[in-house]
Design a protein that fits this description.
CATH superfamily of the largest domain: P-loop containing nucleotide triphosphate hydrolases
Largest sheet: 5 strands, parallel
CATH architecture of the largest domain: 3-Layer(aba) Sandwich
Number of helices: 11
Oligomer: single chain
Strand order of the largest sheet: 2-3-4-1-5
Shape: elongated
Strand content: 5-15%
Distance between the termini: 27 Å
Number of domains: 2
Length: 271
Amino acid sequence: MPFENINDASFFYYSVKHKEALARMNYAVRQKKLGVLLTGEYGTGKTFLSRVLKKVFSEDKYIFVFVTNPRLNPLEFIKEVHYQLGAKLNITSPEKMDFLRSIQEVLEDYARKGMYAVVVVDEAQSIQRDDLLEEIRLLLNVQSEDSVLFTLVLLGQPQLEEKVERIPQLKQRLSIRYKLSSLDKEETREYIDYRLKVAGSSRSIFTNSAYDEIFSLSKGMPRAINNICDLALLSGFIKKKEMVDKDIVDHVGEDLGDIKPAEGKNNIDSA
């Protein structure tokens, strides 16, 4: 299934934009920077990139924590990070400070073993409480006197930048940033061909006009491209077509509802 919206790193297409974003995150982790901020519209591949990032690093040297539901209160957030790090507490009714001390202890223990932690907060634009962002900033203070113990990776839609701006101390700690944009027309075609090749295809399946229409409908958003192509392959199979043409793609766009063909033109500049 070449167009599943799952985080399978083998299907990751390295556009110039994605290479740049991944390189910055890679640099932040290898150089033990405090934090990195990656923003982009829904469906541009931010979550996918974070999973690819994990694949880059050896599991016996790096510990990854993924917080995928940031609509938590500060204590719940700290508990989640604490749990995923594998920290233990032998206290009947621990307070927040107990969890923070325990996190620091386990991070220092990892450092002594030559290991390093990466805390990824996904969909961070959905954080509703400024006190949680403040807690994330305070968590970045959980470092040793002479070295950084973990790198924070914040992923979110563009409005996350506004939230970070409201907390200058957090903004200063996120020294590495990148805004991920959608694919252009040529990259959209390359993206489709790459995923088909990984899935085992050895021939062209989409016509030239179909590629153009997919770009027009998806505006170069990888998640939208996947949705369109997945249904287009199914429709082409049902209709016993040798190739997916523009008409099939148009009908798929209508079926998806929120994706509509652009009137009077086939090409839309990527956002």
